[in-house]
Task: structure prediction
Amino acid sequence: AQKITQTQPGMFVQEKEAVTLDCTYDTSDPSYGLFWYKQPSSGEMIFLIYQGSYDQQNATEGRYSLNFQKARKSANLVISASQLGDSAMYFCAIWNNDMRFGAGTRLTVKP
Amino acid sequence: NAGVTQTPKFRILKIGQSMTLQCTQDMNHNYMYWYRQDPGMGLKLIYYSVGAGITDKGEVPNGYNVSRSTTEDFPLRLELAAPSQTSVYFCASSSTRVLGNTIYFGEGSWLTVV
Result:
């Protein structure tokens, strides 16, 4: 079964700066998808960005970009120009017939 | 636009009681999932279904049962509630296995077993 690892329990970033949240994965299947979700204190899961295993280019969605390094099996999330509203839990997930999540990283944006 | 709807939102159960968490989606998605999220932790997959009549165990299926009689509904049953099942439960759905389709989550159900 696939496995996903987030090694940063918590991260701090200054408002307007960029931050990278780490994610590594393990799967034996060549076809998979990688996702990032945001979970604010209210609890809902908000989809941020997706990267397919066969996608040649790194995915971008507004201020979010995914640094996909297939050989290293990493899929780091980069948030540019951090905002106070970015403070939340961030989950990396891998999809192949089912979705498995990492333990999450709590991001705190300082004013 | 309802999306994924799960009920109840909050519930307190006594040890040994049974209950069913309801989940329904109106997007005609084939795939449906149940996750649990313990405080400060990530989501753990309990069960999932790839279509009506088909269910499979996830990472943490013990103590739970599911059924999928229709495309829309995917209820989660707790037969003998235990304090270890105190958690937030999320139902989710997605379309076919074609990659690139995101998973849509319900708003979560907060369950406390005392």
